[in-house]
Design brief:
The complex is a heterodimer of chains A (112) and B (115). Chain A has no helices and eleven strands. By secondary structure, chain A is mostly beta strands. In chain A, a hairpin with a 5-residue loop joins strand 7 and strand 8. Chain A is globular. With 115 residues, chain B is mainly β. Chain B is built from no helices and twelve strands. The chains are: A mainly beta (112), B mainly beta (115). At the A-B interface, strand 9 and strand 10 of A face strand 5, strand 6 and strand 10 of B.
């Protein structure tokens, strides 16, 4: 158990819909990262937060947005969903930026 | 350009064989970290090791060992006497200080250990 909690674990929705993925980092970790992993693909970095502030942005689509709240949990919002958004979405946290990431179990999104 | 290259896409070995997973990285930073992660078929990503750029000492943990060579910008991972439970995708990663500590993951090496 990494200590990072992601909900929901599985989500099935239709094209055009909007979903919110939630992440609770390990206790004390201020940094939160979001990654997307499509079938047979590597890890695509989406966005990073540190103590509530956006720190870095990767290949995150404009239809996607995220935030980190004062209690340090983070949410990733995916809107106008397309079939190609079907993927495993990982949240990870670290005690300090640059140190090892501890990953949640992921949220598997299926868009039909 | 890829910051982390894992040239081996898939490897198959027979149980009890040794296997080395290659990782080559690219950075201009003098301070950086290197990592290995394991992703078994169940899907979770498990942290295995971190190495900082100032510590080239090789490390051994049970059947796992890591060889860090700055001269060749490589951070290779060897599994000795492989077991079926080692079957997974292994990712190498780099974090740099000059890019806000962003993480760069390789594309992964899928290891299959055949019983």
């Amino acid at each position: 158990d990494s200590g990072v909690t992601q909900t929901p674990k599985h989500l099935i929705t239709a094209t055009g819909q909007r979903v919110t993925l939630r992440c609770s980092p390990r206790s004390g970790d201020l940094s939160v990262y979001w990654y997307q992993q499509s079938l047979d693909q590597g890890l695509q970095f989406l966005i990073q937060y540190y103590n509530g502030e956006e720190r870095a942005k990767g290949n995150i689509l404009e239809r996607f947005s995220a935030q980190q709240f004062p209690d340090l949990h983070s949410e990733l919002n995916l809107s106008s969903l397309e079939l190609g958004d079907s993927a495993l979405y990982f949240c990870a946290s670290s005690s300090l930026p640059g140190l090892e990431l501890f990953f949640g179990e992921g949220s598997r999104l299926t868009v039909l | 350009a890829q910051k982390v290259t894992q040239a081996q896409t898939e490897i198959s070995v027979v149980e009890k064989e040794d296997v080395t997973l290659d990782c080559v990285y690219e950075t201009r930073d003098t301070t950086y970290y290197l990592f290995w992660y394991k992703q078994p078929p169940s899907g979770e990503l498990v942290f295995l090791i971190r190495r900082n750029s100032f510590d080239e000492q090789n490390e051994i943990s049970g059947r796992y060992s890591w060889n860090f060579q700055k001269s060749t910008s490589s951070f290779n991972f060897t599994i000795t006497a492989s077991q079926v439970v080692d079957s997974a995708v292994y990712f190498c990663a780099l974090s740099e200080t000059n890019t806000g500590n962003q993480f760069y993951f390789g594309t992964g090496t899928s290891l299959t250990v055949i019983p």
